[in-house]
Amino acid sequence: MVRKSLSQLGIPGYKVMQWEREWDTPGEPFIKPADYPELSIATTGTHDTEALTLWWREQTPEERAKLVRHLASMDA
User: Fold this and answer.
1) Which residues contact 18 (CB under 8 A, 6 or more apart)?
2) Cβ atoms 1, 8 nearer than 8 A
3) What residues contact residue 6 under an 8 Å CB cut-off, 6+ apart?
4) pLDDT tens column, 11-61
């Protein structure tokens, strides 16, 4: 409801890449930034999350590969 309300009011939503995933899809793939609503602010983290380098170090090789595939597909 919050995202819908923000959009209706013309207020950008905040998209934190590590949280923007298809949580109900097997493998929980990342949502492509190109698929974020146009009225969005996208970032790799916030003051409430660890820095991207720390997040990266804590991920499994599989999770890292998901992110790399995701970033590589952004031009597609």
Assistant:
1) 44, 45, 49, 55
2) no
3) 12, 13, 39
4) 988 899 888 999 999 988 888 888 888 888 888 888 888 888 888 899 999
